[in-house]
């Protein structure tokens, strides 16, 4: 059980760089961001939307408390925000936030004593972030989640646990904290505990939550190897899916929470399930050799699935999931995710040849530049991928599903080298 402090004792504040202006902050609506019509409740911490262009002349000026010019020696964490428009890094100095399109550093927050941040998560493009400390000199304890309002430049809350925090996930209405054998869900407005889940040992902090307003779906490991647990909070239903014979290594949830993709520690097959009833919709093959899956990501429409692994290749698969009518069917209680007609050239001999030969393979691949760990998400432009590496790589590439050829690299940067050069 966590202890909650809405206004904890003051930690040392990070310093900001005079070279990088903080983002322009505009009013953000917690539940209806698209309409921008509701008023923020005065008793809640203000959540504000970051302007899309961090270089406009009307940006707020940087705080005057100085910038500690340090070189990053250890990169602990890289993570995209919920829509892939930004990414954040946690380092032995503090945190930095970057825009993906165009690629540029938006702001950084470093600490005078070089305190390490091992987990950093953004709430879309807003001023709200969460931190967890890491490294030989952690800025915050590893068992505390710090809720940071960058507009106010202060900690607005903390959650303290009895064991180390493995990961954190954010929605506009909730905070999900993952420990090694427990998942806690808190209401964002008042940081009150609303649900807790027991899991099998989960040292990687595997957990995903959907981002569609009003109907949260959460996926986490179950209580057995190869099992995932799906929580439908609106309908108060729990479903267990036995996805693999061996331990789960990675999974991803589609934006609206209807479809789940899973991989085991073998890393050869990725399975796609309907989260409503647990039906296996599709199975795709990454390869024949055992691999460690680092990242799985759905495209916004769940038409494509991207997978990265320690084999040095990113694969894109075509999904045959039929999400039905986009306007009415989704909101119906009878909405079902189904499998579209198979177009595999070997589908007619399934059950005759060994499974390997009738597998569905990727439609595009990208050879990674090094042996680092990479994560992937889909870009906002059609058929584009964004790739982040723990070596500091930021790569944007484009795939042509009709050709089945290697992806085309559109740009590549190293945010660690640019940091040292600044």
Overview of the molecule:
Helix content is 2%, strand content 42%. It is mainly beta. It has one helix at 415-421, and strands at 3-5, 15-16, 25-27, 48-50, 75-80, 86-91, 94-100, 103-110, 117-122, 128-133, 144-149, 154-160, 167-170, 174-178, 182-187, 193-198, 208-209, 217-221, 227-232, 237-242, 248-253, 259-264, 269-274, 280-285, 293-298, 304-309, 313-318, 321-322, 338-339, 364-367, 374-378, 384-389, 393-398, 408-414. The strands form 9 sheets. The chain has a 5-stranded antiparallel beta sheet with strand order 1-12-11-10-9, with no helix packed on it. The protein has a 5-stranded antiparallel beta sheet with strand order 2-8-7-6-5, with no helix packed on it.
The count of strands amounts to 34
**Unreliable stretches covering 5 or more consecutive residues:** 5-69, 325-335, 341-350
Biggest sheet, spatial arrangement of strands: 1-12-11-10-9
Largest β-sheet summary: 5 strands, antiparallel
The percent range for helix content is under 10%
Total helical elements? 1
What is the straight-line distance between the termini? 43 Å
Structural class, by secondary structure, is mainly beta
Global Rg: 21 Å
**Mean pLDDT figure:** 79
Q: In percent, how much strand structure appears in the residues? A: 35-45%
Given the C-alpha coordinates, what overall shape results?
globular
């Amino acid at each position: 059980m966590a202890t909650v402090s809405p206004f904890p004792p003051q930690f040392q504040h990070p310093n900001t760089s005079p070279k990088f202006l903080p983002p322009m902050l505009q009013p953000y609506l917690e539940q209806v961001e698209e309409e921008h019509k509701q008023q923020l409740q005065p008793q809640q911490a203000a959540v504000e939307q970051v302007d899309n262009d961090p270089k406009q002349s009307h940006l707020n000026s940087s705080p005057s408390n100085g910038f500690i010019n340090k070189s990053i020696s250890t990169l602990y964490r890289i993570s995209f925000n919920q829509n892939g428009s930004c990414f954040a890094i946690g380092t032995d100095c503090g945190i930095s936030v970057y825009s993906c399109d165009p690629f540029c550093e938006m702001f950084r927050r470093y600490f005078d004593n070089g305190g390490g941040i091992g987990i950093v998560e953004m709430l879309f493009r807003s001023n709200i972030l969460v931190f967890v400390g890491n490294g030989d000199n952690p800025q915050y304890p590893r068992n505390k989640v710090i809720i940071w309002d960058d507009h106010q430049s202060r900690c607005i809350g903390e959650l303290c646990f009895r064991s180390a925090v493995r990961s954190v996930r954010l929605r506009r209405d909730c905070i999900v904290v993952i420990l090694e054998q427990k998942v806690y869900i808190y209401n964002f407005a008042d940081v009150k505990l609303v649900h807790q889940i027991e899991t099998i040992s989960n040292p990687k902090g595997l957990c995903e939550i959907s981002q569609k307003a009003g109907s949260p779906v959460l996926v986490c490991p179950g209580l057995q190897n190869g099992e995932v647990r799906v929580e439908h909070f609106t309908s108060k239903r729990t479903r267990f899916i036995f996805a693999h014979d061996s331990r789960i290594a990675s999974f991803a949830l589609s934006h609206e929470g209807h479809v789940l993709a899973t991989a085991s520690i073998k890393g050869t097959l990725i399975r796609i399930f309907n989260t409503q009833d647990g039906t296996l919709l599709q199975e795709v093959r990454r390869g024949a050799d055992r691999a460690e899956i680092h990242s799985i990501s759905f495209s916004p429409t769940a038409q494509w699935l991207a997978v990265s692994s320690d084999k040095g290749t990113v694969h894109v698969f075509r999904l045959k999931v039929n999400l039905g009518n986009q306007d009415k069917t989704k909101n119906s209680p009878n909405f079902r995710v189904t499998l579209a007609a198979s177009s595999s050239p070997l589908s007619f001999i399934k059950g005759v040849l060994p499974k390997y030969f009738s597998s569905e393979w990727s439609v595009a691949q990208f050879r990674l530049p090094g042996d680092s760990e990479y994560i992937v998400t889909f870009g906002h432009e059609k058929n584009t991928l964004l790739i982040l590496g723990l070596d500091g790589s930021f790569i944007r590439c484009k795939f042509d599903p009709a050709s089945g050829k290697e992806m085309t690299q559109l740009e590549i940067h190293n945010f660690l080298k640019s940091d040292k050069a600044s």
